[in-house]
Amino acid sequence: MTQKPLLELGFISRAHGLRGELAVRPFDPGSQTLSTVDRVRVRTRAGVERDLVLESLRPTPKEDIVAFEGVESRTEAEGLVGSTVFVFREDLEPPEEGEFFQGDLLGLSAVDEAGTPLGKVEEIWATGEVPNLVIRAAGRQELVVPFADEFVPTVDLAAQRIVIRPPEYVEVGRRDADKDAPDGSES
Asked: Which of 162, 120, 157 is nearest to 142 (CA)?
């Protein structure tokens, strides 16, 4: 498997002030990645990509206030609002054994321990101590699984596959949530 050269970090949520600063909201609220890199790539909503060099960074509880070289006015900053922010893999320290960049988990095929397909990892929600993988497949309910060893025993990036042990309260493969009665009638 070829690794993606870019990893999705977050998005530009708003312009800040009059001098071109921007608020970057990482998908992982605890991420300090922006403080370790000198450059990013942004992709606007129109699909235009642009490499930007960080000039300054001020972390806040919900987002990072960033100044980029060449973005000098509020009008220029407003043109970047809504853009996706990527970091270059080569600018990051590689993850330790058993650790993964969250961006590498997106798109993996999810299967249960018996090998039954569950869908693809389409989103990662960082809402608590551990991120939650959002797995979707046509005709199935969305499956949200904590990214912890108890629920994710195997990640095989080379095979683009992740093994999921769904939490007990989730009925995997259930196609119709309204058919709760044993005789198949709706409740």
From this structure: 120
Which residues in 120-149 are b (16+ Cβ under 10 Å) and which e?
Answer: bbeebebeeeebbbbbbbeeebebbbbbee
* Nearest by Cα to 11 from 23, 2, 1, 20: 23
Q: Read off φ and ψ for residue 119, nearest 5 degrees.
A: 135, -155
Q: By the 8 A CB rule, do 134 and 121 touch?
A: yes
C-alpha 64/C-alpha 176 separation (Å) is 42
Task: Please provide residue 34's backbone torsions phi and psi, each rounded to the nearest 5 degrees.
Answer: -60, -30
Q: What is the pLDDT along the chain (187 residues), one digit of tens a residue?
A: 567 899 989 999 999 999 999 999 988 877 889 999 999 999 999 999 999 999 999 999 889 999 999 999 999 999 999 999 999 999 999 888 888 888 889 899 999 999 999 999 998 887 778 889 999 999 988 999 999 999 999 999 989 999 999 876 445 554 544 444 445 444 4
Q: Provide the 3-class DSSP secondary structure of residue 152.
A: coil
Contact 101, 56 (CB under 8 A): no
Name the token pair of 165: 């042990």
Q: For residue 134, which amino acid is it?
A: V
Backbone dihedral region for residue 107 (phi beyond 0: left; psi -120 to 50: alpha; all else: beta): left
